[in-house]
Amino acid sequence: MKFGERITTARKYAKFTQKELADRVGISQTAVHKLECDRSKSSRRTVSIALTCGVDPIWLETGRGEMSLCGARPGMSAEEVGNAVDVGELHRTPLFARLPLISWDEAGRLCSEPAESFHPTTVDTWLPIAPKAGDKAFALRVPDDSMEPEFREGEIIILDPTQSGKHNQFIVGYIDGDTSLTFKQLMVVGSKKYLKPLNARYPLLEVPEALWVSGVVVAKYKDYPYK
């Protein structure tokens, strides 16, 4: 049984419509539909979906073990599930603690879309979540050498889109009137704001108008893409 089929099985076991499940989990009905159509092989909402439907998260994610979760029933509130099942360890299990690595185009949507309702439509891969990252966190690949030596091209930065950016923080965003995202250090001097590249070969950018922030960097992750 594929991941999407298990989502459908769990939903029907709980006797939810796609909309009912979406409302309970906090995602869109379209997102549930895409999961059931197997357009995504996994979801960072796996635990929430499983517990909402009263099934075992490990079964839902991998197909291993039994579908039923001892002590849980479909439709139980989060508090009721917490009292009936020890789910604390599940949320700390690396299998479920993940965040999406997305494209810069996807990240641009966060400048015009509230973080609470943002759901990436395309995920390149899933990464272990950083301890400081919230449940809306996402990851991007550093696109160039403008932030070297601290952030090298190709490394992965992890961002919290619920933060608006403070002095000395590393942010991803764009200046009002510009359509391209940039990754820089935010400098606030009196009433003025600047975007500072760490690489001295790149110019300091003054923020003339509004600054739209997609997220604040809370961690970085480096992988080694060996073949």
For the biggest sheet, the summary is: 7 strands, antiparallel
Query: Which percent bin holds the helix content?
Result: 25-40%
Give me the Rg, rounded: 20 Å
CATH class of the largest domain: Mainly Beta
CATH superfamily of the largest domain: Umud Fragment, subunit A
Q: Helix segment count?
A: 8
Count of beta strands: 9
How are the strands ordered across the major sheet? 3-4-9-5-6-7-8
Mean pLDDT: 79
Structural class: alpha+beta
Q: Any idea how many domains?
A: 2
Stretches where pLDDT falls below 50 for ≥5 residues?
A: 86-96
Report on this model:
There is one protein chain. With 227 residues, the protein is an alpha+beta fold. It has two domains: 3-96, Orthogonal Bundle (434 Repressor (Amino-terminal Domain)), CATH 1.10.260; 99-221, Ribbon (Umud Fragment, subunit A), CATH 2.10.109.10. It is 26% helix and 22% strand. It is built from eight helices and nine strands. The protein has helices spanning 3-14, 18-25, 29-36, 46-53, 57-62, 78-84, 88-92, 104-108; strands at residues 98-101, 125-128, 138-141, 156-160, 170-175, 182-189, 192-196, 205-206, 211-221. A hairpin with a 2-residue loop joins strand 6 and strand 7. Helix 1 (3-14) runs parallel beside helix 4 (46-53) and helix 2 crosses helix 3. It is elongated, with a radius of gyration of 20 Å.
